[in-house]
Amino acid sequence: MRAALYRDMGEAAEVFRIEEVDRPEPGPGEVLVRVHASGVNPTDYKARSGAVPRPIDGFQVPHQDGAGVIEAVGAGVDPARVGERVWLWMAAVGHCWGTAAEWTVLPARQAVALPDGVSFELGASLGVPAMTAHVCLFADGPVNGQVVLVAGGAGAVGHYAIELAKRAGARVISTVSGPEKAALAEQAGADLVVNYRDPDAAEQIKALGPVDRVIEVALGANLGLDLAVTRPHGTVVTYAAEPANPELPVRACMTANLTLKFVLLYGVPMEALDQAAADITAALVAGELTGLPVHAFPLAEIAAAHEAAEGGAVGKVVVTP
Fold first, then answer.
1. pLDDT for the residue 288
2. Which CATH number does 2-125+291-320 carry?
3. What is the pTM for the complete model shown?
4. Which residues have a Cβ under 8 Å from the Cβ of 296 and sit 6 or more positions away?
5. What is the reported pLDDT for 257?
6. Res 29 pLDDT > 90
7. Would you identify the CATH topology of the domain 129-266?
8. Separation CA 56–CA 58 (nearest Å)
9. How far apart are CA 195 and CA 270, in angstroms?
C-alpha cells in the first residue's frame, strides 16, 4: 500500500516520504480500515517536528484521526463489522500505523460507527479535537444551565466545545480574534462571540453572566481575562501548551477560589474516552455536530498539508489517501 511516513523528526518537506509498504494485518481485537480521509492535528505535526518527540520504531505513519471502511477484523472482533463505515481515534498511539496511508490497523474500540449521511471528511475531523472538547467540558459533570466560555471558538477543539456545550444545555460565549473566525463561532451556535482584543471584552462577556467554566487554548495569554469574567469557584480547563510557560497570579487565583485543570488526551482513562466517543456519535446521529471548512490535500502533498496546519489555516486540514 501507499503510505506517508517519516523515519526522522524534522521539517515536513525534509522528512516525509511517500512509499510502498506492506499492508498491515489486524491482530486480535483489531480492525483493518481502508482510509478515506485522514485529519491533521497539532499533535501530529508536533510529533513529526520533534517539538513533542515520540519514539520511532523504524518508521512512523502519522495522524491519529481518520475515517473509512472496515475491510477485515482480527480474532475476537465481530465479523459483521466488515463493511462498516467508521471514524477513528488515536490510531497512531503506541505503534507506527497512523491514518496517513491507504489502510491502517487499530483496536476495534477506536473505530466507531460513522452514521449514514456523515461524510468521511467530517469523521476524520473528530477524534482528537472533539474528544478533547468533550473531556474539557464534562470532566466535572453536566454543564446544563451553566455559562461556558470557549476561547478560540473557530479552532477545531473550540468548534466542538461550542456544539457539545450547546447540546448539553449550556449558554456559550466564545472569544475570537477577528470577523472571519467570529462567523465560524456563530455558525457553531455560540450565544455571544467577543473579539478578545476589544478593550471592553470582559464587560461584553460579563453581560451574559459570570462564567462557570472556561475551555482555554492559551492559558498564559488569556488568564487575566478568564479571572475577570469567571465566577468564584469557577473552573478553567486548558488543553494546549504555549511556547513559554505562563506566569501564574497565585493570589488572584486563590481569591477567586479558581480551579485550574490541565487535559492531555493521551492520559485520559479509557472509560472516559469511550464515553466521549459514544456521546460524539450520538451528537452526529442527531445532526448536532458540523465540520469546519476543509482544506483537502492528496497523500502525495502531505508535507504541504502539515505546513498549512502549522501555518494556522482556518478550518480543518484533511489528507485523502
1. 97
2. 3.90.180.10
3. 0.97
4. 121, 318, 319, 320
5. 97
6. yes
7. Rossmann fold (3.40.50)
8. 6
9. 36
